């Protein structure tokens, strides 16, 4: 299956600041991905390069089989930015009308249905909207575009919990009926754990880990207990992070730990627990090493 997006050894710096370095990633068609990273990890710089807003210093970016050159904007791609610079005097319905001109698969009826669902006033001007309502306008554009590659940068900023849950639910429902590739870039890890199928974890401008969310759930463990017993259990396994405190040791492990190993660990007074995605992310970032 051909990738809809491929980045190969992409590098971008601003003076001495390496915003993106030796970064490679690949997105397959009809999959929901998460790009997870702290603020300042390089997420937005990467997305700007993918969508033609900036160009890489080196490396290559290919979208739908076409390599991007400096200044190119990829076709059939919808990018919903963290901060959209809409003309403040335009009304919500006018923004949607303008967006329809750029997206050949645009579903106008669906866009207006979403306006009702999110309780937006289509005649209200952008400058009259709150931060959350402005985010919703961008999210409606992303959903109604039905673009083969749809990218969201921090799509739920300014939204309350109920609106965030509603957006994610509608996204999954529409994706099920109209499959395409969706990339959600965020630092709100736990919220997208039930939405995305695969994640890229980025730190200091490079990808530390690429994996299926289900595989992370199965393989990630927090091991705590007597130092020697913990060391025996984790020997030969991929340890993301380790910390000793007194006679005890904590180890975050990204590897399979079988039932027999867990039983033996329990007998030695060692606790083995699963890691929620948020904690997995935190330990991986703290350890700072790429996992192949």
Walk me through the structure.
Helix 2 packs parallel to helix 4. This protein has 2 domains: 200 residues, 3-Layer(aba) Sandwich (Rossmann fold), CATH 3.40.50.300; 73 residues, Alpha-Beta Plaits, CATH 3.30.70. The strands form 3 sheets. It has a 6-stranded mixed beta sheet with strand order 6-7-8-3-9-10, sandwiched between helices. Strands 2-1-4-5 form a 4-stranded antiparallel beta sheet, covered by helices on one side. Strand 4 and strand 5 form a beta hairpin. The model has no long low-confidence stretch (mean pLDDT 93). The radius of gyration is 21 Å and the shape is globular. It starts with a strand and ends in a 5-residue tail after the last helix. The chain has 10 helices and 14 strands. It is of the alpha/beta class and 292 residues long.
